[in-house]
Amino acid sequence: MEAFTRLDAKVAPLPMANIDTDQIIPKQFLKTVEREGLARGLFYDFRFDEGGNEKPDFVLNRPEYKGAGVLVAGDNFGCGSSREHAPWALIDFGIRCVVSTSFADIFYNNCFQNGLLPVVLKPEEVQQLMDEARGGNHVVSVDLEAQTVVSPSGATFRFDIDPKRKEKMLKGLDAIGETLTRAVDIDVFESKRALAQPWMEEA
Fold this sequence. Notes:
Elements: E1 6-14, H1 21-24, H2 44-47, E2 70-73, H3 85-93, E3 97-100, H4 105-114, E4 117-120, H5 123-133, E5 139-143, E6 148-150, E7 156-158, H6 163-171, H7 175-180, H8 183-196
Parallel strand pairs: 1-2, 2-3, 3-4
Antiparallel strand pairs: 1-5, 5-6, 6-7
Helix pairs in contact: 3-4
């Protein structure tokens, strides 16, 4: 998993509440367990018409938001089914941070396991980011170490995050990576067990 420290990127506004995981990545794109190639399906029904052509009015199709790395969205982002493909698709598209007033619990947890930073801000702060993102300057700074989001105008918003999750994000550790940091301890334990309980090693 790629570590997250500081991100300076374009911010795209998506002022919609209750965006569910089927809207983030529709079911027809769930046939793979690979994390790459899912960008095509991200917000597919929002981005494309029935003929597969881009809808020019959707925010992520507009030239000024191409390459956006931060998405600021409405309340309860990521609700619905517990598909891990949702954060995979966002990351594959190039989005490393989503800002909202609240997230669905399962989606929120999945974000931390995949290197996507979910940031919860106050409603008025999210609204200010939305408004500024519609202006001429679309660049924000998200600093995980300082736990701040700096808007295009320079306004600074602070967010809370669980210290353990923060540490793992800064180091780029998912559940497997965290386990591997204790590889030496695991080897010592297994060696001691093999000596004390040799029958456990028998095929």
